[in-house]
Amino acid sequence: MTTSTTGWAAAILAAMTICLPYLVRILAKAKGGHPPRDELIRSHLVIGFVVLALSSAHMLASMTPTIIGSAASPGIAVATAALVFVIIQVGFGLRLNASKPDGKRNSRRLHIVGMLAIVVAVAIHIAINSPLLSRS
Question: Which end of the chain is flanked by fewer CB atoms within 10 Å, N or C?
Fold first, then answer.
């Protein structure tokens, strides 16, 4: 896989896993029921781990002298921060999944803050480093 393929795949799957809980909740409410929690959480967790794997593969594929030499340093720094945020986010998600109902509020807030940090870092990385947005 190319760096572009792994990067965009990770970004698309991240967007999917962000939207999944909200979409399922909206659809369940429209049908007058409750979302299927176990299936939803399992899918959300699996996609989260796939995002982590693809993000790691993207980073490893990007670590060539040619790419590093031509890439903008700020973009690489932001991408590194995004990967760290993804790792932390997986931890937040596991903590949220394991927490008791009375402890979910704080864990959910951390999970949402982590998601926002990832979205911002990835958007900045794409703006700086994506060949699709390149001005040259």
Answer: C
Tokens (6 digits) for 79: 């991408």
| Percent of the chain topping pLDDT 90 | 40
Q: What are phi and psi of 11, to 5 degrees?
A: -65, -45
Q: Token pair 């900045």 is at which residue? A: 124
Give Rg (Cα) of the chain: 17
pLDDT score for 134: 63
Find all residues with CB under 8 Å of 8, minimum gap 6, and list them.
Answer: none
Residue in 38, 46, 35 with CA at minimum distance from that of residue 90 = 46
- Alpha-carbon distance 89 to 130, whole Å? 24
Query: Can you tell me the distance from the alpha carbon of 11 to that of 117, in angstroms, rounded to the nearest whole number?
Result: 13
Distance CA 88, CA 39 (A): 23
- Rounded Cα distance, 94 and 42, in Å: 11
| pTM for the structure as a whole | 0.82
Which tens digits make up the pLDDT trace of 58-111?
888 887 776 666 555 788 889 899 999 999 999 999 998 888 888 888 888 999
Specify whether the CB–CB gap between 115 and 18 falls below 8 A: yes
